[in-house]
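Students often ask what a holo structure prediction actually looks like on paper. The answer is less mysterious than it sounds. You provide the chain, you provide the ligand, and the output is a string of discrete structure tokens encoding the 3D arrangement of the protein together with adenosine-5'-triphosphate.
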Amino acid sequence: MNKTAKNHVLELVEMGRVICIASGKGGVGKTFLTGNVGIALAQHGFSVCLVDADIAMANLSLLLGMQSSPITLHDVLLGEATIQDAIYEGPKGVKFIPSGLSLENYRRVDSERLESVINSIANQFDFVLLDIPAGIEKNVLSAIAASDEVLLIATPDPPSIADVLKTKIVAQRLNRKTIGIVLNLVRGEKGEISDTDVMKMLELPVYGIIPYDPEVRKTFLHEKGGPLMVRTPDSPAALAVQKTASKIAGIEISIASPKSKNPIMQFFNKLFSIFKKKPKASKD
Ligand SMILES: Nc1ncnc2c1ncn2[C@@H]1O[C@H](COP(=O)(O)OP(=O)(O)OP(=O)(O)O)[C@@H](O)[C@H]1O
Ligand SMILES: [Mg+2]
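The corresponding structure tokens follow.
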């Protein structure tokens, strides 16, 4: 996007947006999406800060090739460093706050402080993107609470979609806005749930359909590795990430949505109506 487009969007976005990338299941591409969408936004001229808020299993630094960043979010959460000291320069001008790898420090960290730490930098950037753990445990809740918006990601299969619905409900209970869902590792195979059906099930717009792309795995090659957006910006997954970045930034891109009548829709509608039921008030 050119600067004029950026200015237009920024008129709409008065202050920095803090967005976490969340999923029910692990290994669906949160870290991949956070890193690459952040780089794409930076390439569009936005100021972006990526935060590795997966404080137990940090690996955003690996994706960015920034493993040797000495001051980390752990130090900040422990009150042993300031957040400004933990901000590093990443690829293509993104800023990056790493998480520590020490298990000892992890045990001492209190993730509840994350909200105030993130609040303190939100207005320095157009976008602060948080890479968070999977599931709905305490560290996830703290990271969602530290965000203004939640972008969901899942693979297009029933267990992944069922679990991401729980994440959506948790975000709702924390009064955080879920903006959309990204489908990743899409292979176009039989048995996958279509984006149209996902949209209906989750009642959310689809922010991206990212194909399985063997180029992604080359990120971690010792030589010739590096984030997809930097290495092969024309690969199918990188182009899809690009669309997601545009959608996040507020430029509508119509994503082709092949119509399908998924035979398991009925099953899911039933399952989701159970999930969505509010818990009954306890009698005691
Ligand atoms: N579109 C894709 N095509 C091919 N491989 C992918 C794609 N997206 C992600 N991967 C690979 O899948 C693996 C899991 O991705 P990633 O680490 O981003 O998932 P995650 O949701 O962050 O996992 P965790 O829940 O453990 O934090 C990585 O090896 C990544 O390179
Ligand atoms: Mg991850």
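Residues 12-276 form a domain with the Rossmann fold fold (CATH 3.40.50.300).
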